[in-house]
Design a protein that fits this description.
Distance between the termini: 16 Å
Order of helices and strands: EHEHHEHEHEHEHEHEHH
Length: about 210
Amino acid sequence: MKKTILALDVFDLKTAEKLVKDTAPYIDIFKVGPILFLRSGKEIISMIQNNGKEVFLDLKFHDIPATVKRSVESAKDLGVYSLTVHSIGGEEMLKEAAAVKGRPKIWAVTVLTSQVTTPEEVIRRAKLAKSCGVDGVIASPLEIELIKKECGKDFEVVTPGIRPAKTDDDQKRVATPEAAVKAGADFIVVGRPIIEAADPALAAKNIYEIINNM
């Protein structure tokens, strides 16, 4: 499976569908966040799946354990590949989510890449997630190697904050695609550098080739 996840951070189904079709040769997983999901619901999930691709449902569940468990069960019924929960939800919540039979992959959010934090805090949350049976974490490129060292190579690290070049935006902890993959990222999440490019398909191809040629 290709390492790049495309974040469909757009506002309507038509735009999302064009992005999926245009970048399909280079992307296997498409991230659906709250804005697009609230606007399009199950239709966006079905569209991606009907194009032969997987869905990463990024709704960052964080609630009482029973509610998060039912949310994971609902996501399972949608047939998504993976979903996110917040690590700050705590041990009981994470364990309830991970205990759902036949569930999608669960990736726990450590600290948002727009926030400043310490590596120690990220590692603490990653180790908690692993101990609760979660499949991996969402973490910035700066913590990949530390997480792999502390949690093992099989514990997945999914890395947002990917920028092919330096940009001035709200992401504080960023890296290039090659740096993230070299550090051990299992997947990288790319949004604006592809969806805001003059030619999204070419932008996706360039990142794909960079990773494929490493």
